[in-house]
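Checklist before submission:
- one chain only
- standard amino acids only
- sequence pasted in full

Submission:
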Amino acid sequence: MRLSQLLVIGLALLPLSISESISPAKAEIKLKAASFLPARSVYAKYFYRWVDELNTHCEGNLKISIVGPEAVKSLEQWRTLKDGVIDLHYGPPNYYKGVLAEADVTSLANTSAAEQRANGAWDIINRLHNEKMNAWYLTHISGGVKFFLYTTKPQKNGRFEGFRLRSTPIYDDFFRSLGAEPVRMAPPSLYTALERNTVDGYGWPLWGITDLGWHKHTKYRHGPGFFNAIVNILVNLDRWDSLLDNQRQCLTDMSIWLERKFPEWRTIENEKQITAQISAGITYIDMGTDFPNLAHQIHWDTLMKENPTIIGTLRNLLVR
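Returned file contents:
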């Protein structure tokens, strides 16, 4: 065989030799995540904390970097995940309810994320995300962080007749049932609206009132709290399928770790938020158990219209 032929054969085999010397299991994959809120937000803080923990635990397998809404607009992040522009998305399911209305069912749960993984609810929710969102549902955060009705003036006999309340679709009908008029408004505009008395209150979870400055114009918080301020952590399904088994396992392990760890974080943060509201002069008004029960029944009725079979099954798994 001529020398030139040997050289050609040798060069042809060279990439194979190099690739065989590198173990795919040791190649660290870099994943890009988008958070619907910036890092300074209390709701984003725990996602960033989880990513830091994951990057340490999964070092050598995968590493996640995060961009916020300044890079990808909050309401567009779910679509960029679906299309594969980003690898992970941290955002609330009601942002993509037009595509997957059933995902919002966890906002009505009184079971934990860990319980939902154990009883089969997680499997159903994941399959829905696979089929309709091209996404793998890792887990959610903020379960047990409740919504409240905040106002600048007192209610009258449990009614809010004549109140204009900043609202979102998830509790429009509930506010109407209380006699109020829901008003659609982006969160950044709410401070000025409160200041100018163009709204009389708003629906919002327990966390974040003082961060946004709304406490300066808020006098009352009405409860007991209703719904859960659920925020999902999703992976693009094509990206998930492309990962090695050990990389997928690391993401799963860290999701289960988060489900076990978050209740501890939530308890500490709840205390901080309540203390801050009391210091700001916000008075808590207990409206009785009918208050959250009405909110939940109205939202269950709405969801049942979307997909009664799946929603009915999930309701039995999510509510004790």
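Reviewer check: The first strand starts at residue 29 and ends at 35.
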